[in-house]
Amino acid sequence: MPDIILSNVQKSYGGGSPNAVSALDLHIGDGEFMCLLGPSGCGKTTTLRMVAGLENLSGGELRIGERVVDSAEKGVFIGPEKRGMGLVFQSYALWPHLTIERNTDFGLRLRKVPKAEREERVNRVMKALDIEKFRNRYPSQLSGGQQQRVALARMLAVNPGVLLLDEPLSNLDARLRLEMRAELKRIHEEFRTTILFVTHDQWEAMTLATSIAVMNEGTLQQLGTPNDIYDRPANRFVAEFVGSPPINILELASDHALDRAAKEWLRVRLGDRSDLGSVGIRPEALKLASSEAAIPTGSFHHEATITGVLPTGGSWIVEINCAGRMIFMTTTESPRWRGGEQVWLHARPSALHVFDTSRSRLTAADKALARADAGVAAVREA
Amino acid sequence: MSSLDHDIDRAAGQGGRLRYRLRLALRDPTTVIGILMAVLFLYLIIVPILSILGDSVTVQFGDERRIKAEGGTFTLYYLERALSSRVAQDLFWVPLLNTLKVAAGAIVLSLAIGTILAWLIARTDMFGRRWFATALIVPYMLPAWTFALAWSTLFKNRTVGGQQGWLEAIGLTPPDWVAYGQFPITVILALHYTPFVILLFGSALRRFDSQLEDSARILGASSYTVARQVILPLMRPALLSAVVLIFAKCLGEFGVPYVLGLPVKFDVLATSLYRSIGSRQTGVAGVLAGAIMLIGMIAILIDAWLAREARRFVTVGSKGAMNRASKLKKWRLPATGFAGTMFIFGVGLPIFTLALSTVMRRPGIFEWSNFTLDYWIGRDLPTVAMKTGILLSPDLWRAAWNTISIVGMASICSGILGILTGYVVVRTSFRPLAVFLRQVTFMPYLVPGIAFAAAYLSLFAVSRGPVPALYGTTAILVLALMADQMPYASRAGISAMMQLGKDPEEAAQIVGAGWLKRMTSVVIPIQKGSLVTGILLPFISGIKGLSLFVILAVPATDVLTTFSLRLVDYNYTQAANAVVLIIAGLAYAGTLLAQKLTRTNLAEGLGN
Predict the structure, then answer these.
(1) Beta-bridge partner residues of A343
(2) What residues are paired with A320 via a beta bridge?
(3) Which residues are CB-contacts of B435 (< 8 A; sequence separation ≥ 6)?
(4) Measured between alpha carbons, how far is B498 from B493 in angstroms, rounded to an integer?
(5) CA–CA separation, B531 vs B541, rounded Å?
(6) Cα(B428)–Cα(B423) distance, integer angstroms
(7) Which pLDDT value is given to residue B322?
(8) Do A154 and B511 touch (CB under 8 A)?
(9) Which residues of B touch A151 (CB under 8 A)?
(10) Is the pLDDT score of A52 beyond 90?
């Protein structure tokens, strides 16, 4: 399957409502497992449906390899029936009046595939998804997870070059979700299809995708590998959307003691800059020390009070009051702290994500902070 | 690039855009079908209404001299005649007043009885409440004038000719006010619409969360305070809605006032309209029909507004919702007795009276020699026109066949059009079309049947353009009935398609199915069930319908309802009652069948 290329794609539903998708450029390479991640209403499902051909573009162009399949300017629109893709709906959308077998071979019958080959292909996908035993049942007799497999099998049977998944795991319970996640990875390898899937669940995106496109309000925020997205968020939105408990944000323009301390700390390392907007520190990057002396020199630190320790099973969320501001920290080591205790909060320099006044990542800061990190390590060894 | 080149480029872009839009619109025939249906509904629903409204302000054929104007020119003569002339009292004002009096009486009475019954059924431990829940709805499944005929079988006095009622026959002459006019009409309409209150109020009560009641109790409120300050305010929307809908239905009610009002010249708007049409006063009929439509529309719009208001405090029946039955204790038996009495008056007595009357030669004489089956299966009877018992009469079978073919045809058409409307409304990318279809198919709901029939008469009585004169044909009945059923059919179709959603069809599209294939192997097979209901329900309400047929049917296109009305006119009491019993039986059996097929309680769906 050739690549799928979206260039400057727009979608508006008219009536003065804001664009559902605007100026979206995306390149989905062959064999990729890409995830569109974002809060509800961010345009991710609309994007998926445009790729499928269930929605048309309001502007821009959609190509599959060299072939333009949707372009208002060129007056071209190729319908979903002719795009050779597969789509698994969030609701599964199995045909309630057909058996599982007929649901699965629907597309093959449509293509008038000879009986022998049809059976062979249906058997193969049914076996791969472990739904052979439901062959003669109707969708209403199956559980959610089983229906999900049938919905997948139905699409895989026609051997689509691209498989589109709309919130594929959202209707499953936690255990099935784990199983299906593994299943999807296996299918991706076994059938060697390109997969584009939509989710609002960051863990799903992190664990499944080879690349993640984070969207918000119809625009692409960041495209990168799961690690990129988490470790180097391109802007405040990505930083705050990904991660739970959410990243701690310090607004540098504010007059708050902690914020002022952060600003001063940064001024020392980055020099005088007028474009510093905010700093984010992930909860697991924070550490606690009982005295100022125990803090590695050079790291960012501040005095604080523990207000609560919440066990979450295997890890802990520590609530910290830092000069009147609530900060969250997570730890996998059983904390020795109790509520009301005075402590010192600290983080190594590179754990600070610096954003400029227009909320984008200040990449210039990254190198300087990484250097500062090396300094901290040296001190500690010494 | 020069500015000229730029312009050319943009022109090409716009051409492309137009081509793109066209390509999208024509990719599948949904929009085309939608446009064709919009045109059809425009002609079958809007044009007749405009036509009769036009009649009321243009000089009608035959009135040129009286009005001293050319036929077809604008005139206020009919409005004046109906609203302010010397005959205006008889034509419009008195019937309007009568309509309002009857409707008000029926509303008060049915609310008083219906709310109590609804509460007994929904929230108490009355004996047999499950049985009563169905039994008390039965009056609604029968044509209203079944009760009118039963009434006149019992109470008809010497004021009019023909066979007397049972009371008169045994020497107790009922006074005119009991036998005819406002009192019996009010009582009968109240009986007929009580089930409506039971359904609406009952379902509101069932949804009502007992915890709301309990919270008030815990805070120390007495049961009187709870009823007045908690339950009643929350039930008010359901009650008001019942009031408005009963009013709208009373407005178009024809059969009952026709049977019971005529002997004492008690006219309501519907019968006055019928008379204007009978005496060929087309213009006045236009004014009356317009007035009925206007009042009907106002009523329904008020209801829609109330429904919106009600949504502001929906009592959400979520997980916590509890429906606890009140213990009646010593009142348990009397309450059951009350419900039983209402069943006897609402169903038992009328049906029993009618049934008995058809096997009695002379009314009110309970001797063996007076009983006969002649009126059902006899031959060589000494009457003028009905020489055989009703079951042997070819007229009955022709009327029955007409009923089934006309109502059946109309129901099948409206059922299919309903599903198609649903499909287009849900699927078309052209939103204005969806909105128009939704609204136009709802319109007949605002127009009482009799006014709608008058509108059809006005449009199709003469040939217009390529459409021949349809009066006297079955076609006009089928078309009118179909249009009249569209509100229910399209509502059913839209909700069925909404429930199905786009996904199953889009899934077929993704694996490569074209439009026709999607329709035949996905959409239609899935919607088979709702299509059957969509045909069956209008069929049942069509069988017992009267007001459309009484205007549009001629003897050749007699259906069961008009046939029995004709028998009433000719004073063949036994035969008329027998036919009404047959209709009631059909309607009841049909409802049960539909209920069985769909495994739901359909009494609520029988809107007509």
Answers:
(1) A304
(2) A306, A327
(3) none
(4) 8
(5) 16
(6) 8
(7) 54
(8) yes
(9) 507
(10) yes
Q: How many CB atoms lie within 10 A of CB B302?
A: 16
Residue A73: CA count within 13 A, CB half-sphere: 11
Q: Is B596 on the interface with A (CB under 8 A)?
A: no
Report the distance separating Cα B455 and Cα B49, nearest Å. 5
Q: Inter-chain contact A56–B24, Cβ cutoff 8 Å?
A: yes
**CB atoms A95 and B513 under 8 Å:** no
Which contiguous run of DSSP H or E holds residue B565? helix B560-569
8 A C-beta contact, residue B269 and residue B288: yes
A235: nearest Cα among A254, A225, A220 = A220
Instruction: Give the list of residues 6+ apart from residue A10 with CB closer than 8 angstroms, or none.
Output: A19, A21, A22, A23, A24, A57, A58, A59, A60
3-state secondary structure of A287: strand
CA-CA distance, A341 to A363, in Å (whole number)? 36
Among the partner-chain residues B506, B513, B522, the one whose CB lies closest to the CB of A54 is B506
Which helix (H) or strand (E) element contains residue B419? helix B408-427
Task: Look at strands A162-166 and A85-88 and give their pairing.
Answer: parallel
Contacts of A87 in chain B (CB under 8 A): 506-507, 510
**B287 and B82 Cβ atoms separated by less than 8 Å:** yes
State the amino acid at position A101 in one-letter form. Answer: E
Q: CB of B434 within 8 A of CB of B30?
A: no
pLDDT in tens, B140-149: 878 888 899 8
Rounded CA gap, A273 and A102, in Å?
Answer: 66
Q: Do B513 and A110 touch (CB under 8 A)?
A: yes
pLDDT tens for each residue of B60-70: 887 888 888 88
C-alpha span between B138 and B127 (Å, rounded):
19
Phi (first) and psi of residue B582, to 5 degrees? -60, -45
Strand order of the β-sheet with A4-11 is A21-28, A4-11, A59-64, A67-71, A76-77
Task: Tell me the pairing of strands A316-322 and A325-331.
Answer: antiparallel
- Its pTM stands at 0.79
Name the strand (E) or helix (H) holding A39: none
Helix (H, G, I), strand (E, B) or coil at A53: coil
The residue whose two tokens read 């169903």 is B347
Q: Cα dist. A26→A117, A196, A258, B13, B241 in Å?
A: 36, 12, 40, 24, 54
Question: Does B445 or A288 have the greater pLDDT score?
Answer: A288
Ranges A260-264, A292-296, B127-131, B379-383, most confident: A260-264
* CB neighbourhood size of A137 (10 A): 15
Nearest to B346 by CA among B334, B338, B336: B338
The answer to whether A80 faces chain B, any CB pair under 8 Å, is yes
